[in-house]
Amino acid sequence: MPDPTHSAPAPFAVRYINAARRDELARDPHTLALIGFADAPWLSADDTCNFDLVLPQLAGTPLCEHWSSPTPVERIARDGLRIARNDDILFASLQLPADDIRSSAHAIYDRILELLDDSAYPHLLRVWNYFPRILDVEDGLERYQSFCVGRYHALEMLGEFEAALPAASALGSHGGPLNVYLLAAREPGIQIENPRQISAFRYPPRYSPRSPSFARALLKRWPERDHLYISGTASIVGHESRHATLLPQLEEILTNIDALIGEAHTRHGLSIRSIAELDLLKVYLREPALLEPVRDALETRLPAGAAARIYLHATVCRSDLLMEIEGLSQGTGRTLKESAAAVK
C-alpha cells in the first residue's frame, strides 16, 4: 500500500504522447494509465491500465493519453478492474458488455462504489464513459437515457448525492464494450457549475427518466497546484441545445468553458481565466468532415502554444449536437511544447 504521507506538487500529470512510445511507457513504474484511440477495442494482457477506446483519432501523428505519477505506482487487477494508485490518487478502468446498457451502467457504477468504499480513496473526481450506439432507441428510450437511469440508480446510494457527483463525460463510441475509467482521491474536490446552464443533475425529465449524474467541472486543490477537470461541454444554454450549425455551436461551447473557468477563478481563486490557459483539450466530433473547420477555428481563436488538442470521432449524447469539448488545467500553464516534444 502506498505511503499516504507522501506529498508532491500534484500527484499525477496527463499529456498526449506519440503512440510509438506506448510500449516503452507501459513498462515505466511511474505510469498510471495509457489510453489509445483506435478502430477496434483493445485491452493489455497484463494488469496495467492500458487500453484502446473505439474513438478513432481524426488527424495528426497517432497519439496516446499518458497518465504519469511522480512516484512509482501500485497496480492491481481483480474482478475485471484495472487499478493503479499512488499515495494520493487512484485510477481505475473497467469494461462490461454494452448490450443492455442500463443494467451494465448500474452494475459498473455499483462496482465503482464498492471499490471506493473498500479503498482509502473514497471521493470521485472525474469519470469518463464510452459505449456504442448511444442514440439508438431500445425499449422506448435512447441508450444514453438508459445509461443515465442505470448510473443514477447506483450513484443515488451516495450520501448527499448531488454534492458528491464528479465531473464526467459520456460519448458514443464506434464499437466495443461500455468502457469507464475514473480518478478518485482521499479528499473531495469542489464542484463548479456553469451560471449559463442548469446543472445536469437538475435537468427536466424530458431528457431522461433520471437526470444525468455529473458536475459541469470539478476543482481539486493539490499541495502546490490546482487542477480543474472540465466535463464534456456542448452547445447548451439553460438546458436546451443551441444552434443548428457547427461554428455557432463551437462558439457556444467556448463561451461555456470560459464561464466555468471564470466561476472557478472568481469564487475559488483559480489562477487561470480563460480556455487559452488550459493544458489539454479533447475535441469530440460527430463526423470526420467537421474536423477542418473546427481545427481552423480553434487555431484562430487560441494563441499559439495554448491547450494541446486531440480530435476524436465520437457521437454526442443529443442528436442535434455536432460536437463536444472537455478540458484540463493542471496548474502548469501551457503544455503544448511538452506535447510537441513528445510527438517528435
Characterization of the model:
The structure is a single chain. It contains six helices and 21 strands. With 344 residues, the protein is an alpha+beta fold. It has one domain: RutC-like (60s Ribosomal Protein L30, Chain: A), CATH 3.30.1330. It starts with 12 loop residues before the first strand and ends with a helix. The N terminus and C terminus are likely disordered. It comes from Acidihalobacter ferrooxydans. It holds the Pfam family FkbO_Hyg5-like_N. This is Chorismatase FkbO/Hyg5-like N-terminal domain-containing protein.
Short summary:
This protein is an alpha+beta fold and about 350 residues long.
Reconstruct the topology from this structure.
Layout: E1 13-18, H1 22-26, E2 31-37, E3 42-43, E4 50-53, E5 63-68, E6 74-78, E7 81-85, E8 89-96, H2 101-117, E9 123-132, E10 137-138, E11 141-142, H3 143-155, E12 167-173, E13 178-185, E14 190-192, E15 217-221, E16 226-233, E17 236-237, E18 240-241, H4 246-268, E19 280-285, H5 291-301, E20 308-313, E21 323-329, H6 336-343
Parallel strand pairs: 2-4, 9-12, 19-20
Antiparallel strand pairs: 1-5, 2-5, 3-4, 6-7, 7-8, 8-13, 9-13, 10-11, 14-15, 15-16, 16-21, 17-18, 19-21
Going across the biggest sheet, name each strand in turn. Answer: 6-7-8-13-9-12
In CATH terms, what is the fold-level topology? 60s Ribosomal Protein L30, Chain: A
Runs with pLDDT <50, length 5+? 1-7, 333-344
Which of globular, elongated, flat, extended, rod-shaped describes the shape?
globular
The CATH class assignment is: Alpha Beta
Helix content: 10-25%
Category from helices, strands and their pairing: alpha+beta
Separation of termini?
Answer: 36 Å
The CATH architecture can be given as 2-Layer Sandwich
- Let me know the largest β-sheet: 6 strands, mixed
Identify the CATH homologous superfamily: RutC-like
Question: What's the total count of β strands?
Answer: 21
In DSSP terms (H or I, runs of 4 or more residues), the helix count works out at 6
How many structural domains does the protein architecture include?
A: 1
Mean pLDDT: 93
Order of helical and strand elements: EHEEEEEEEHEEEHEEEEEEEHEHEEH
Beta fraction? 25-35%
Radius of gyration: 18 Å
